[in-house]
Fold this protein.
Amino acid sequence: MSDSQQQNRPGQGPDTEDTPGSGSAPVYADQVFRSYPGAVAGSVILLLVLWLCVDAVINGKGRVPLEGVAAALLLVPLIGAFSLWPCVRVNAERLVVRNPFRTITAPWVAVESIQAALSVELRSGGQKYQVWALPVSMRQRKRNNRNAMRQLADPIRSGSRRGRFGAKTDFPPGGPGLRSRSAAPGQAISGDPNRAWADGVVDKLNEMREQAGPPVVGGAAAVRWTWWIIAPAVVGLVGLVVLLAS
């Protein structure tokens, strides 16, 4: 799995704990998937915005300190909502998708499908939800597909080569040990390092959904609005508009 994912896997010591009672099945910590490059970029932008707003509050004159407070109320929740907050948490019973303004919680039996096309989409109860925490990179997908095709064609291109003393070897150009592991023609490449990260996560989620059994008819996800993000952003926007317009 890609280093862009944070996973708590079953059977890794402190990440597992047993339920009370003898003979009960162990309960494992949730697996968490998120885009770490996005979180890092959001953290840098958040620090920059905070520095500018604090500087405006401390050193500003007239209405500048109030504008700095209003800008902080508007920008800080939004930046955090789109970079640090989104993630996907899963365990054996349910799936939780944290989007910027909504949190979708669905037991696996209420999940109809999870697909990755131009974006990752979750379907539950006849509704479609975008999964912000799993961005689909078309550039990465195309590059990885090209690498996979090169690996599939590698045995045909390289063939058998003779060593220094005429012994027949299958070393590729450049010497032994430099050829990447290749899949046989027609073999699925899921789990391969050439698999795009978002596609690999979707494969993992679909495996967990299949293990939970077929979807239940009429099952639906529970949706909660993240008011703690929306409310301060609206207050900051209104305050900033009033201050700039007056």
User: Anything to note?
Assistant: The first strand starts at residue 5 and ends at 6.
